[in-house]
Design brief:
Largest sheet: 4 strands, antiparallel
CATH architecture of the largest domain: 2-Layer Sandwich
Mean pLDDT: 75
Number of helices: 5
CATH topology of the largest domain: Alpha-Beta Plaits
CATH class of the largest domain: Alpha Beta
CATH superfamily of the largest domain: Ribosomal protein S6/Translation elongation factor EF1B
Helix content: 40-55%
Number of strands: 6
Structural class: alpha+beta
Strand order of the largest sheet: 1-2-6-3
Order of helices and strands: HHHHEEHEEEE
């Protein structure tokens, strides 16, 4: 007997139950396979929200996408960071160029002597007498810095000149405005002798003897 004949031989009630049960079973099976596929493959924007499932492969993909987005944001900031670093390096290089190195003490001595000789005669009179390194401070580093960091020390150039008041003012100005960092820390003045010009009968003030303590900071670049 064929399936059709068997179905026709069944009571009407059984035929109705079987007719409703088979489609329902098929729908449940289809729903089960669809749900499993959604869990494994992830949501589809074309499907209604209630049919989309989280977790599974989609969850891993979403996590990777978030990580990629974070990395891309960091990469996007790199040009701005590099520009900031270059700007800082320029500032550091300019500061290091102003600040003498420990090996340049002889060069600094020559600069101080040359500045005295270069005061224009129409501005004032400065005659260089002598210079010696009177004091060299201990090495100092920024608080908490490593031993390999740049270390600074103060060096004082004890300079003696003879000058009139205009020459003294100009000399101090030229020292402190020099591209190499120098500062006049102290200045002592011994007044010049007063003499009389026989031809005019007027007193003449001689050049003052001036001692200047010119301080600079030298540095030794760190190894690391």
């Amino acid at each position: 007997m064929s399936l059709v004949q068997r179905f026709n031989a069944m009571p009407k009630k059984q035929q109705m139950l079987l007719g409703l049960g088979l489609p329902l079973a098929g729908a449940l099976a289809l729903l089960w396979f669809t749900n499993k596929a959604l869990v494994e493959l992830g949501p589809d924007d074309r499907l209604p929200g209630f049919m989309q499932k989280s977790g599974g492969l989609w969850g891993d993909i979403a996590t990777k996408r978030e990580d990629i987005a974070k990395q891309e944001a960091i990469i996007a900031e790199r040009p701005a960071i590099e520009r900031q670093i270059k700007a800082l390096q320029g500032d550091i290089a300019a500061a290091e160029q102003r600040l003498p190195r420990a090996a340049e003490k002889a060069q600094m001595r020559e600069i101080i002597q040359r500045l005295a000789r270069e005061i224009p005669a129409e501005v004032g009179v400065v005659k260089y007498l002598s210079l010696k390194i009177a004091e060299e401070g201990e090495k100092t580093a920024a608080k908490g810095a490593k031993k390999s960091a740049v270390e600074y020390r103060t060096v004082t150039y004890q300079t003696e000149v003879q000058a009139d008041m205009n020459g003294i003012i100009k000399y101090v100005e030229s020292i402190e405005k020099n591209p190499r960092f120098m500062s006049v820390n102290s200045l002592s003045l011994k007044p010049g002798k007063v003499t009389f010009d026989a031809s005019t009968g007027k007193p003449v003030l001689g050049l003052h003897t001036v001692r200047l303590d010119i301080v600079t900071y030298v540095y030794t670049p760190g190894k690391g």
